[in-house]
Amino acid sequence: MKYIVTLNGKKYEVEVEKGEATAVFLGAAEAAAPVAEEPKAAVAEPAKEEAPKAAAPAGAGDPIKSPMPGTILDVRVSTNQAVKEGDILFILEAMKMENEIVAPRAGTITSITVDKGASVQTDQVIATIQ
Q1: For 86-115, what is the mean pLDDT?
Q2: How far apart are CA 114 and CA 71, in angstroms?
Q3: Are 88 and 100 within 8 A, CB to CB?
């Protein structure tokens, strides 16, 4: 069976045959990581650029979740940092590949719930953005 899966704004064509899975990136010329299971699709709404506001309450806003299980190799943001849509927030190692976790929209990081070296699961909240 073939599936089209959207992960962090990139579309992958996933073909599954008797327990095996392969993925082909549809779009820019990049190599795609093999996909072991179908991740949940995430669609980010376009965000309007706004001037930075006063610090938001810790943990307020929308959750940013890990798209797959793995280990956090790098945390590139801090609490109360303003980010733009597409800014790299974390580097997540999964299946011996480094994956960039990017900001789904412009805003301010209100909390970070993981540290460098932490193991995370699929859909685990790793930060919040407001």
Answers
A1: 94
A2: 10
A3: yes
Task: Express each pLDDT in 37-87 by its tens digit.
Answer: 555 555 555 555 454 455 556 677 899 999 999 999 999 999 999 999 999
How far is Cα 21 from Cα 5, in angstroms, rounded to an integer?
Answer: 13
Residue type, 1: M
Yes or no: domain 62-129 corresponds to CATH 3.30.420.40: no
- Cβ count near 85 (within 10 Å): 16
Residue with tokens 């805003």: 107
Estimate to the nearest angstrom the gap between the alpha carbon of 30 and the chain centroid.
17
Q: What is the pTM of this model?
A: 0.56
What is the pLDDT averaged over residues 91-117?
A: 94
Cα 87 from Cα 110, distance rounded (Å): 15
Q: Cα–Cα distances in Å, from 106 out to 15, 44, 66, 76, 87?
A: 34, 11, 18, 15, 9
| Domain ranges within the chain, ordered by starting residue | 1-43, 62-129
Amino acid symbol at 129: I
Q: How far is the C-alpha of 15 from the C-alpha of 24, rounded, in Å?
A: 9
